[in-house]
Predict the structure.
Amino acid sequence: MDIELIVTQKIKDVDALDGFTESLHEAMPGIERDISRLKQTPGDNETIRNLFSTIHNLKGVAGRGQIELADAITHLIEILLTRLHSSEIIFNNFVAEAILLAVDRLALAMESMSGNRSLENLRLVSLLQGLESLSTASPGDIKTVAGNLIEAVTDFRPAAESANLQNGQTEIESRPLENERTESPIERAPSLISDDLRFFRLLADLLEGRSPLFKGRTLRLLRLATETNQVRDNVVDPVQLEAAIYMHDIGMMFLPDTLWLKVGRMTPEELAMLRKHTLYSSGLLSRMGGWETAAEIVAQHHEMPDGKGYPEGIAAASICDGAKILSIVDAFESIMLKHASHGINRSVLRAIAEVNACDNQFAPEWIGPFNQVIHRTLNQ
């Protein structure tokens, strides 16, 4: 297999690419459900056969469309599943994460191809090399090889191999980033408490109450944003950043619940309406004295360094640091939430891998500090 050639292949048939991408997105929830079942019952051959059938069908679509990258990735996953079905190797959580990571990275690659964007940051060569090694690894080496694949693609070593393991734990951690505090960092310093912050926090709590999926979301975002900011010695005013975290999605409350809680694909009209939430949220803050910085953070947190964000389409140099931080932590939380809606808890490893792969969406100077925060979280 000429991996370098496969990764650099140009897609000639755009319709075939779109067709495969649609098939992949339709299959992904089922793949995750089957992987989840196998985590509970590793020897369930019926589930393995069902998973193999899904991957085989995707391989067929890729082959007919001459999408070599998709054909290669699905082929290597097929080999792995065949070995599992024959009991040559035993399913474990490292293998589960490697398969899910491969499917995730394939989806990102298809989206990048559709948008004529670079694939370099996706580390597809490392992914294919890791899958090749996994397809031929001895039973005793499977866990190590899967861990090596994950680290090569994400830069994160599975937590089960860290020095802080207790009680012989052998699974990759996929726990949510829950914050055990019941108050924010600012609330711990009474002299800094303001009625405005209390009001903002109340609004955030009301928004969380609109959906059970949002429970604890505000404090998770606050912890991630605060600790990321601390890595760079609080470049952003912590009080303004906290206000922005509380208020960044409050504009959603001015939109129909059926719109902003929608799970499926939105129409262009619905998407345009949804994007107004940043203006509603920042507008509220800008009308209250002393919160101009927070208003700017909220207004810009969906802007992108390449100028393809919204609402203004401004580029990296014009986006404030607070918005860059909020953009990263908000996207990370959204990835976790997206998969929770399918009934599957997406692991921190897979979420951080996707954030790191989206090189055009986030400010590179803040990805490093955010990764440090996640590293600490995985090793706690």
Q: What stands out?
A: Residues 3-161 form a domain with the Four Helix Bundle (Hemerythrin (Met), subunit A) fold (CATH 1.20.120.160). DSSP finds 17 helices and no strands in the chain.
